[in-house]
Specification:
By secondary structure, this protein is an alpha/beta fold. It has helices at about 15-25, 40-45, 65-80, 105-135, 155-175, 210-220, 230-240, 245-260, and strands spanning about 5-10, 30-35, 55-60, 85, 135-140, 180-185, 225. It has one domain: NAD(P)-binding Rossmann-like Domain (Rossmann fold). The protein is about 50% helix and about 15% strand. It has a seven-stranded parallel beta sheet, sandwiched between helices. Helix 4 (about 105-135) links the parallel strand 4 (about 85) and strand 5 (about 135-140). The chain is globular, with a radius of gyration of 18 Å.
């Protein structure tokens, strides 16, 4: 996937990783960038600093109809979507850190709609145009939690695993029609989703710009799995080699994190 001269949509594009992606895509020579965000003003302000053909749009990705409108507007304006970055996501901590079932149904439902179904709605809306041209790419921001676990957030962990599963199905089913898929799975990144007090407790916190650099490289190489934190590969291998030992290690890590936090 080459960024130069591409038409790109980025959800959750006005801040954090999404903002860094938009800025990096601009530097790489994208022909047009659609910055979609729940905060429409911030999206418009960012778009004004990018290539002249860029626009900002207010979009709540938890609403499937809003994503359909986003895709339709982009295709009407630009004629195509080359890369759809389904980047928006939300975290939700377990209200009681000693109880993995403590989040209520409303919290679980919103995590599901934003972290999973937003990817499904985007693919459903953008696939027809991409397949008609025989080309197109999806980038799903998933998180290393989709490969491992987010201690203290059962809903985030579960929905990120589901998002990874959908991306794999999308990649396998549609590659022969010219459609590419990549998943971006960073670990700790210095964004609003990372509580300020957590940074000293975590392993190698990257900036959004670091993540954007890795993403552009991964897309240029056509990789499905983009891992900005190299150590995640080791953790996944350890989990696969001896899952029982890995779970035991995560239990010990949780104890240490709780101790340091208090």
């Amino acid at each position: 996937m080459q960024i130069r001269d591409s038409i790109i949509v980025v959800t959750g594009g006005a801040s954090g990783i999404g903002r860094a992606l938009c800025q990096r895509f601009h530097q790489e020579g994208a022909a047009g960038i659609v910055v979609a965000d729940l905060d429409g003003r911030k999206a418009t302000d960012l778009a004004a600093t990018l290539c002249p053909n860029s626009i900002g749009i207010a979009c709540d990705v938890s609403d499937g109809e809003a994503i359909i409108r986003l895709v339709r507007l982009t295709e009407e304006r630009y004629g195509r979507i080359d890369l759809f970055c389904s980047n928006a996501g939300i975290g939700s901590a377990d209200p009681d850190p000693s109880d993995a079932t403590s989040a209520d149904a409303t919290s679980w439902d919103r995590c599901w709609r934003v972290n999973v179904m937003a990817h499904v709605h985007a693919a459903r809306a953008a696939l027809p145009g991409m397949q008609a041209r025989g080309s197109g790419w999806f980038l799903h921001t998933v998180s290393a939690a989709g490969l491992l676990v987010q201690i203290g957030s059962a809903s985030y962990t579960a929905t990120k695993h589901a998002a990874l599963g959908f991306a794999q199905s999308l990649a396998i089913t549609h590659r022969d029609r010219g459609i590419g898929v990549s998943v971006l799975c960073p670990q700790a990144v210095a964004t609003a989703m990372l509580p300020a007090g957590d940074a000293p407790l975590l392993d190698n916190v990257l900036t959004p710009e670091d993540v954007a650099d890795c993403t552009v490289q991964g897309l240029s190489e056509g990789r499905f799995m983009i891992l900005p934190h190299p150590q995640v590969t080791t953790y996944v291998q350890q989990r696969a080699a001896d899952t029982d030992r890995w779970v035991g290690g995560m239990v010990k890590l949780r104890r240490r994190l709780l101790t340091k936090a208090t």
